[in-house]
UniProtKB/TrEMBL annotation:
It holds the Pfam family Methyltransf_11. GO terms for molecular function: S-adenosylmethionine-dependent methyltransferase activity. It comes from the Bacteria. This is Methyltransferase family protein. It comes from Kribbella voronezhensis. SUPFAM superfamilies: S-adenosyl-L-methionine-dependent methyltransferases. Residues 47-142 form the Methyltransferase type domain. The keyword Transferase applies. Keywords: Methyltransferase, Transferase.
Amino acid sequence: MGVRATRGGGVEIDWGVGSYEPTGELLAPVSEAVVELAGPLAGRTVLDVGCGTGNAALAAAARGAVATGVDPASRLLTVARERAAAQNLTVDFLAGDAASIPVGDQSVDVVLSVFGVIFAPDAAAAIAELTRVVAPDGRIVVTAWPPGGSMSVVNAAAAKFMGEVFGQPNTSASQEPSRAGTPKPLAWHDPEALGAAFAPYGFAVEVNRKSLVFESASAEEYLERSATHPMAVSADRALSQRPDADELRAELWSRLLAAALSVNEDPDGYRFTADYTIATARRS
């Protein structure tokens, strides 16, 4: 099934449902930026954690890396393998998650995670694994959406609504309050938080900020295209269990549309610029 995490008002996200592919295409430029930042990769071993449809792993392989992708969602791994075959690239795609990465100790030169590990339910376990698998002179590169950015505004609107409906705190992938019995969350965008999390393993962290432009004919079209995203499908499934599902869907749409319009930069269409962070961890 590929359930990777619990986010957005306590709703489980099943990354194997819906269609992540359109979002993967939109986020491909981020993978390209991350791979470029990672430096020359020809002949080096690269691991893409939470690889989804394979963007970062494929970009690394295209630059001559020996690439591996890991993801818990079997459907996304199938898509990634098909993409690799279509591009005549050799990439090993494995089932696994950030808390149990199926590769050996210190076996990877570069570990990448493009909006992947930020969804790990147990951030501490994920960091233990990332630092375990990376080579002594290697690096770990992780992207996240910072709170207050345009992407986070829309995501937060959905999370807040679902939290109200299901009686859970407002949550997001990069900033979530702790609940009894759950691991402490991590602000994957924050230099101080990341520095403190990686320091016990002897790593120093540098965080840079970049941006990605999203465009559509209208805010409504943008949201409609996003309706097949695993997060949206998982949320809709949860709402469908409620007797007032239709009313709840209408209210969610209204809030999402208001949030989407609040970040619009184009009065004649729809465009917004989403900031994201790239954190690079190296042994100090």
